[in-house]
Design goal:
This protein is an alpha+beta fold. It has five helices and three strands; from the N terminus they run αααββααβ. The chain is rod-shaped.
Length: about 180
């Protein structure tokens, strides 16, 4: 008797919720799909006492849920690994392209750049830029013999160009001068 009472309660509650759902929909574009889904769910509710009586409800439902969960979990974990690899490759490509662009930009400005290394986070925010400027021996001697304010001025000029171009904080830009 209790089983019949629960079954009828489920039917009444489902019917009320289905009616409210159909009436709440703002447009009629999806109404037929929702009615189809509601109809299928209603059939499942109607058949549920028979499957409980034959003890096939637990086996079918449990196995189906386990199988779905395993398939979805495997798909999710595989896609998560692929997404991580894709993100890493995308960030590496971005860093390489930014480094190449900075090198070309500074070379066009008259500086002789050996290497530019860019480090960014996975959102594309540049964390640091390391630049190696190549200097011939005579230029390096003049650079080393000049006063400290001129050395700082040269580095500040390069930092200013990059800060304007890439909107990076000048504290995150490191410049090293290398001799040929």
């Amino acid at each position: 008797m209790e089983m019949i009472k629960d079954w009828l309660t489920n039917i009444v509650i489902f019917t009320v919720l289905a009616t409210v759902t159909i009436n709440v929909l703002p447009n009629n574009n999806y109404k037929r799909y929702i009615k189809l889904f509601i109809g299928l769910m209603f059939i499942v509710i109607i058949i549920s006492p028979i499957t409980k009586y034959l003890n096939i409800n637990e086996d079918i439902g449990f196995n189906y849920i386990l199988e779905e969960f395993n398939v979805n979990y495997n798909l999710y974990s595989n896609s998560k690994v692929n997404d991580n690899n894709y993100t890493k490759k995308l960030v590496e490509t971005y860093e390489d392209n930014v480094g190449t662009n900075i090198k070309d930009y500074l070379n066009n400005q008259g500086y002789n750049i050996k290497n530019v290394e860019v480090i960014s986070d996975e959102n594309g925010q540049i964390n640091s830029i390391d630049i190696e400027v190549i200097s011939e021996e005579s230029i390096l001697e003049a650079f080393n013999n000049s006063n400290e304010t001129e050395n700082i001025s040269l580095k500040n000029n390069i930092k200013t160009l990059i800060c304007q171009f890439y909107n990076v904080d000048s504290d995150n830009i490191n410049i090293k001068i290398k001799e040929i």
